[in-house]
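Researcher: We're teaching a course module on how sequence relates to structure. For the next exercise, students receive a sequence and then see the predicted structure as tokens, so they can try to spot secondary structure elements on their own. Here is the exercise chain.
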Amino acid sequence: MFIGKNYPLKKITTIGLGGYCKEFICPEEEGELVEVIKTNPLYIGNGSNMCFVTEFYDRTIVSLKKMKKYINIDDQYITCSGNISCTKLSRHLHDNKLPGYEFLYGIPGTIAGAVTMNAGAFEKEIMPNVYSIDLLDEKGNAYTLTQDNLSYSYRTSNINTRSIIVSIKLLRQTEDFDINLLDKLNDKRKSTQPTNLLSCGCIFKNPPGDYAAKLIEKADLKGKRVGGIYISDKHSNYFINDGSGTYKDFLLLLQRVKNEIHTKFDILLEEEVILLK
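Model: And here is the predicted structure for the students to work with:
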């Protein structure tokens, strides 16, 4: 089990910002995981969709990236560990000619993170495909959420973020398999999103009946910069860290965008990215 004291936060998120955390732990076995549960930690997957906006995060952070990963398939369900990446799951299912999950390819996070926030792309969301979720609560007790007690909406769900998602059971889809669909969607993602730069994914939720990226473009904010953080020229709902950015730059740019969108369109943008202090 890896344990890092005063660990640099920029190493554990996809945007690479923040100071240090009290402790960063990567358990490798279930027994080790049960022990760290007692510390009331913050659980992270691939570190996307979040940004640490502090010099010191006074809490233990736990990553399950070193835990065993698996995907099991039967006639009705696809069961996978929560720590597997969306991209790996999507590719594996596509390679096995199982349709319906191509939209997950390229989402920069784990499947556990995806179900927690009801992630989606290309007019699809993950939660309608979830049959059940196995979790451990804050005391290490196992429990299961099924379709009957799962609720969700746009980019949110009722999953307790203080619990650990151990495994997820997905429904096999009945749509026709398109051997070219995954590559088509991936090409579209690459052409419209800054996939190889330091970012945390979309910054704002889309307001009802509109798109955050379009509003940011209409406000002439595309490409605007504060220090080492700038708004992507490829997708206006992405903030990019050029490598020299700080969380203070990030917060200043975030507030500037929110203020200008509110002033020009009377719309209050809501963050999709999770800000951690």
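Model: If you want an answer key for the exercise: The CA atoms of residues 24 and 61 lie 5 Å apart. The first helix runs from residue 30 to 37.
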